[in-house]
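Progress report, Aim 2. The chain analyzed during this reporting quarter is listed below.
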Amino acid sequence: MQKLWRQRWPTIIAGLLLTTAGLRAQTLDEIRDQIRQDLDPGTFASLVAGFVSIDLFPQVSSGTFKVENDDPRAPDSRIDTFKFPFQWNPKVGNLPGELYLGGGFGYLKETDSVILDLPVNGNIVSSQIDSISTAYNAMGTVGWTFDLGGGFGIRPVAGLAYSRVENEGRYDAVGNIIWKPLLDGIVLNWKLQAYTISAGASLLYRQSFDWGRMEGDLNYMHTWTKVFDATDISQEGEVQNDFLAARLDFVYRTGEKIWENPLDFRIRTGLFQILTPNVDPLGFKTLAEVGLGAELDLSDSGLPLSRIGFMGSFFAGQRTQGWSLGITFEL
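Predicted structure tokens for the chain:
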């Protein structure tokens, strides 16, 4: 059969039904070995790459996303993210351009469900399996920003991320008997560690107007993810992916002040795209964002922050919708 990889867990687990259907005469160990063979080594690395991209790309806000399940009998999938991003542009002598340091810490939880139908003695026995994956990410990036004139700039960047992902599988009474012995430690109930090396570039746009300013960036990133420590040897693989993220913000001056700090109003638009063909670890390849927020300009306050604000956003993609509320800041 075609190898199962780079897809959402419901797709992978449902496909295992085809694997086991013709193996009733084999031993448990032989069936588990067959499952290992049908999982491409890039399966788990691709999942990590998806977690890292959505969790730590600065163009994508923290939030809650719901992905429509392929099986209407099963609950929709859910992704919850929280991240603490930062960026810093320190001065480095009289060199042309500007040093960029960025990164952050992120938490992501993905809950998937699948219902499997197994023919037993002429009857169909259904079983629901829930998969809860929790990822902890840390990422650092370094780049150099060059001024192209006319408000445009370009920034080549390179980064390194560390991820720890833990999966919890939950079975109903039927699943405990049929599926738990087959899947545990391979597809469900596992832990892994991975690192991701990234390289890319951002096209930047910053322009001031009488009403405020416009801020935009278009970011391309190529990543190489490798799982180096996992519960099962079949989970240790590597994968390369390409991502595109864009954001365009309009910041309007209100003329008001809070504690002597200017108050601005921000409108945000954004887009996230997985460019690699046949890769769908999160349930969507495209995610659009529209948001509104208010922020204070703290550049003259003497505080270590230059801006702090509150932002709310709505997300939409293929079979996907979501929202976020959070605090943003700039050093």
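Helices lie at 9-21, 28-38, 42-56, 173-178, 180-183. The first helix runs from residue 9 to 21. These observations will guide the mutagenesis work planned for the next reporting period.
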